[in-house]
């Protein structure tokens, strides 16, 4: 049986992993957005589609980071060193 402290440590560890994942997804969305922007410049036949995709992915980029920042805030609040 796990203690409350062990459960808290496991939760904190999972939150750190979640934070890394969310920020990583944000960066991947930004990279894809930039690729669509570049493609829109190279191929005018699909320009409107590419720019729409770029806007959507850029928005996702901000959302992923916003959620990641909320998780980071929880980590700052609850992952404090124990007082002796």
Reconstruct the topology from this structure.
Elements: H1 4-42, H2 47-78
Helix pairs in contact: 1-2
Characterization of the model:
- The mean pLDDT is 93.
- The protein has two helices and no strands.
- By secondary structure, the chain is an all-alpha fold.
Mean pLDDT: 93
Order of H and E elements: HH
Distance between the termini: 25 Å
Q: Total number of β-strand segments?
A: 0
Reported for the largest beta sheet, the result is: none
Helix content: over 70%
Net shape: rod-shaped
Q: Which parts are unreliable, with pLDDT below 50 for 5 consecutive residues or more?
A: none
Write down the Rg: 19 Å
Quickly count the helices. Answer: 2
- The helix/strand class is mainly alpha
Strand content: under 5%
Q: What descriptors fit this protein?
A:
84 residues, mainly alpha, 2 helices
């Amino acid at each position: 049986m796990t203690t409350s402290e062990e459960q808290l440590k496991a939760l904190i560890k999972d939150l750190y992993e979640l934070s890394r994942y969310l920020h990583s997804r944000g960066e991947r969305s930004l990279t894809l957005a930039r690729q669509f922007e570049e493609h829109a410049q190279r191929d005018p036949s699909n320009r409107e589609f590419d720019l729409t995709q770029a806007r959507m992915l850029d928005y996702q980029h901000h959302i992923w980071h916003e959620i990641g920042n909320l998780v980071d805030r929880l980590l700052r609040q609850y992952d404090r060193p124990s007082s002796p």
